Every structure is written in structure tokens, then in C-alpha cells.
């Protein structure tokens, strides 16, 4: 072996421990989408924090930004390592930087499907029973980066003849800040109707099996007997659990496996993390979100 080759082999060998060290993580940070009470989100995900910390052997922190974009930007900037995004939020992250995150799992409903609905609702005592009854009234959206709370109704409602331009059909359309805020706004009469997400399974009185309405019922925020459903979207693909692509492969594999098995190891924790009854988390790929990515492109093009 020549002297040059020997030095190359030696330098490579010395670099290996440094490469291994670079692959180690010092902490793991999980983002939880906004739109609900921050303390409630922390409480519902504390079990996830503990399980992840035990698994990875490093400190794990939960972050609860005020809005959806706080989580998206955290993932794009590398200050968050994992999060369950809505489909539209994933589309935004992908369109901004295709190399930032990768989808690994998706919530599965009790019927085995991995989709849900945007649901329009109003107070029963308002006399509103359909979209036509909303003419000249105020509709509440949640967050601009929400799939069910904005993107899908903003696409499907105008296609059905209900313009989003204030004054054309609705008196006004308002952003409330999130799903919980929309439910509270409708319940308090601050807006005449709103849209939020639900799996559409189970009983209306329970807020269905999972979704923002179920969370609100569990938290004692709303009595669904006071509400009525007035609109429902076409099925929407559930948003993915994503992990930061730059994470070590072993970390991603361990975390993904833990989440996939959580329905068996800690069903109560899964309920809190998933926002209600669920069959657990199943594998998912980028291709599942191509239609949402295209819808997001078109919606962004309208505003440009």
C-alpha cells in the first residue's frame, strides 16, 4: 500500500467516529398544530412525549405554536423533527421545500379508511339547515393552512355556486384562528356557520368518532344537540405524520415503528394524539397527497 493510500485509509477511519457522532441527536422536537387550546394540546400529547423520550433516550419537547404555519415553518427550518400535518399543510411544506419532510404514517379510522370530511355546521336555533340558508350571512373558516378548515371548502363551495367573495353570496367570510375557535364562534353566535373536520363516523351527538367536534365535546366546549350539520365535503385524505428528512435513518425508523404500534401499546394515548377513536396509524406515501398538492397550487395561484 502506498503512503498516499495509507494516509487516505487512516483519514477515512478517523472520520468514521465523527460521522457517527454527527448522526446522533441531542433532542427530539414534536410540533402539534394550532387551532385548539395550547394546554389541551400539551396534555393530549404528554404521553407521546414520554414514550418518545424512553424510546430515543434523549430529551423530547412538544411545541404548540398558535397557528398551523408555526409548525410548518418549524419543520422547514429544522427546529421541529416530527408533526402530524393536515394534507394542505403537508402540501405547503412540500411545495416550499421537497426535501424538508417525508410522510411516514396516517391515521386510520375505525372503518379502515384514511379519509375524513370538512363539515359545515350551525346552531340549531339559528334556523339554518342548508348552505342556501347562509345567503347574506357570515361563514367562519379556521386557519388558511387548514385542509378542512379552509382549502377544501374554498374549492368545493364556489364550485357549487357559493362564492367566497364577501357580499356575493355570504355577507362575509372570516378566519377564526383554528377549529376550536370556529366551534366556539358558531356556538356563541359570532359567526352564523363554520367549517371544521370530522371522520363522519359514529353519532353526531358525540361529535362523531374523531375530529375537532369530538375534541370539543370531550372538552365540554359544545353540546352537539345545539348544532346541526349543513354541508359536507367529498372525502379528504387524512394528513400525514411527517418526519424531518435530515434525521438519522435509525431515529426515523424507531419513531415510525413506535407510532405504528401505539394503538396496541397505549390505546388511550393514541386517542389523545389522533383526536378521538382510531384504528391506529398506517403507512402512507407522498403520492397519496398529489391531488391536495395540485389543489393547493391552484388556490395559491388565485392569490398571486
Structure overview:
The chain is of the alpha/beta class and 304 residues long. The protein is 42% helix and 19% strand. The strands form two sheets. The chain has a six-stranded mixed beta sheet with strand order 2-1-3-11-4-12, with helices on both faces. Strands 5, 6, 7, 8, 9 and 10 form a six-stranded mixed beta sheet that branches. Helix 3 runs parallel beside helix 4, helix 4 crosses helix 10 (290-303) and helix 8 packs across helix 9 (267-274). The termini are far apart.
Using brief descriptors, characterize the structure shown.
304 residues; alpha/beta; six-stranded mixed beta sheet; 10 helices; 12 strands; 42% helix; globular; disordered N terminus
Summarize the structure.
This protein has 304 residues and is an alpha/beta fold.
Describe the SSE topology.
Elements: H1 3-22, E1 28-31, H2 38-56, E2 60-63, H3 68-77, E3 82-84, H4 87-96, E4 101-108, E5 115-123, E6 138-141, H5 147-159, E7 172-175, H6 179-188, E8 193-198, H7 212-218, E9 227-232, E10 236-237, E11 240-244, H8 249-265, H9 267-274, E12 280-283, H10 290-303
Parallel strand pairs: 1-2, 1-3, 6-7, 6-8
Antiparallel strand pairs: 3-11, 4-11, 4-12, 5-8, 5-9, 5-10
Amino acid at each position: 500500500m502506498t503512503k498516499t493510500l495509507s494516509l487516505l485509509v487512516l483519514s477515512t477511519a478517523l472520520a468514521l467516529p465523527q460521522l457517527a457522532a454527527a448522526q446522533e441527536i441531542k433532542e427530539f422536537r414534536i410540533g402539534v398544530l394550532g387551532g385548539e387550546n395550547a394546554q389541551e394540546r400539551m396534555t393530549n400529547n404528554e404521553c407521546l412525549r414520554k414514550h418518545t423520550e424512553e424510546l430515543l433516550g434523549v430529551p423530547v419537547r412538544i411545541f404548540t405554536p398558535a397557528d398551523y404555519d408555526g409548525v410548518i415553518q418549524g419543520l422547514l427550518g429544522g427546529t421541529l423533527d416530527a408533526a402530524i400535518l393536515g394534507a394542505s399543510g403537508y402540501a405547503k411544506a412540500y411545495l416550499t421545500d421537497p426535501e424538508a419532510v417525508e410522510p411516514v404514517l396516517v391515521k386510520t379510522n375505525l372503518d379502515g379508511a384514511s379519509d375524513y370530511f370538512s363539515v359545515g355546521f350551525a346552531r340549531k336555533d339559528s334556523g339554518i339547515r342548508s348552505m342556501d340558508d347562509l345567503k347574506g350571512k357570515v361563514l367562519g373558516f379556521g386557519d388558511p393552512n387548514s385542509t378542512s378548515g379552509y382549502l377544501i371548502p374554498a374549492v368545493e363551495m364556489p364550485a357549487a355556486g357559493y362564492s367566497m367573495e364577501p357580499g356575493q353570496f355570504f355577507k362575509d367570510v372570516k378566519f377564526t384562528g383554528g377549529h376550536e375557535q370556529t366551534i366556539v364562534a358558531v356556538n356563541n353566535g359570532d359567526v352564523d356557520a363554520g367549517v371544521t373536520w370530522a371522520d363522519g363516523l359514529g353519532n353526531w351527538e358525540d361529535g362523531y368518532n374523531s375530529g375537532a367536534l369530538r375534541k370539543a365535546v370531550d372538552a365540554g366546549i359544545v353540546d352537539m344537540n345545539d348544532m346541526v350539520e349543513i354541508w359536507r365535503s367529498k372525502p379528504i385524505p387524512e394528513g400525514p405524520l411527517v418526519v424531518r428528512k435530515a434525521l438519522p435513518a435509525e431515529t426515523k425508523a424507531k419513531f415510525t415503528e413506535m407510532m405504528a404500534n401505539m394503538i396496541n401499546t397505549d390505546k388511550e394515548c393514541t386517542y389523545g394524539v389522533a383526536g378521538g377513536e382510531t384504528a391506529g396509524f398506517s403507512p402512507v406515501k407522498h403520492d397519496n397527497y398529489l391531488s391536495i398538492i395540485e389543489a393547493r397550487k391552484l388556490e395559491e395561484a388565485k392569490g398571486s
